[in-house]
Every structure is written in C-alpha cells, then in structure tokens.
Amino acid sequence: MRLFLIRHAHALDLKVDTERPVSPRGQAITRLVSAYFKANGLLNPKQFWHSPRRRAFETAADMVSQIGLACPLVETDGLDPLDDPNIIAERLRIYPTTHDIALVGHQPHLGLLASLLVTDSTRANLFHFKKNAVLALRRTDDTHPKSQRPQWRVAWHFSPEMLPRFAKITDGS
User: CA-to-CA distance for 100 and 132, rounded, in angstroms?
Assistant: First the structure.
C-alpha cells in the first residue's frame, strides 16, 4: 500500500480560514502538477481523502479531475492543520492494504503525520510540505515496536519547484 500526502494549493487570504478557496495561482500550479502526474502515472490512488477545509477539497477535486482518476473524494476528519496525527495513523493502521490512498491536508499536520508514520514519533517534525508537494510513503510488513503500528518508508518526494515551468507561474511571467 502506498500513501500520498499532499499539501493543498495556494489559497486566498480571507478572514474565515475554513472557507479560503484556492487562488488563481494555486489553480495554475495544481494544473501543472496534475499534468506531471498524469504523464508519469505515479499518483494513482483509489481514494482521495481531504480535510473539511475548502482549499483541501478544491485541490483534491482539481487533481482527480485533471489527472483523470476515477476515485472518490472523501471528506475526512483528523486532517486539519492542528489535529492530532495519531487519529489518521490509527485509521491507517486498521485500513485494508489493498489499495493506495491520497490525503490532502495542511501543515503542520502533514509533516507531523509523516514523521509519526516513519519514526513512530512526532517529537521531531522531519518533513516540511510546500504547497502542492507530494510525499509518497510505502507501508512495510514491519511494525513499530512501541506502538505496534505499521512502519512506513519514504518512496519519493515531489515539490512543484522541480518542474521547469513552475518559475513562470510564481514570478508572474
């Protein structure tokens, strides 16, 4: 089983945090990122879980549509920025390993969740997610001795800055 942790796209600044939509810049970067994954086939989960916040839903919906995936979008509690990563880690522990999942969420939660899945600890936030970044983790057959949760290993990491056309979007060209 693979798990794709994805940070939402750039959003507009509004007073109500939960209602912040993805900005035009965020939409452009999501299109670029989606085209990259559509071309290489590396991101092909069977479900897209997303936080209840609008920007996470819009990022997930745009990626599913633009990559051309036939998978459901699942609003999932436990993915908000300050939620305890143990909530999702426990959900993943009991989740069937028959298919891959993508989670679209926020910092610092995603970094803490990745640290917990890989090291069994959130004391050190080992991963920082830029907007539209994707971290692919692979579940192993081993468990962490202390928690008995599955151990996860990093398969690959992607950040939009890796794409040649990214600079044109971010500098306004």
Answer: 19
Q: What is the pLDDT of residues 99-132, one digit of tens each?
A: 999 999 999 999 999 999 999 999 878 998 999 9
DSSP state of 145: T
- pTM score, two decimals? 0.93
Q: Kindly list the structural domains of the chain, giving each domain's residue range(s) and its CATH number in brackets, ordered by start.
A: 2-140+159-170 (3.40.50.1240)
pLDDT value for 170:
59
How many residues make up the chain in this entry? Answer: 173
Question: Using CA atoms, how far apart are residues 105 and 11, in angstroms rounded to an integer?
Answer: 13
CA distances from 73 to 45, 50, 68, 70 (A): 11, 7, 13, 10
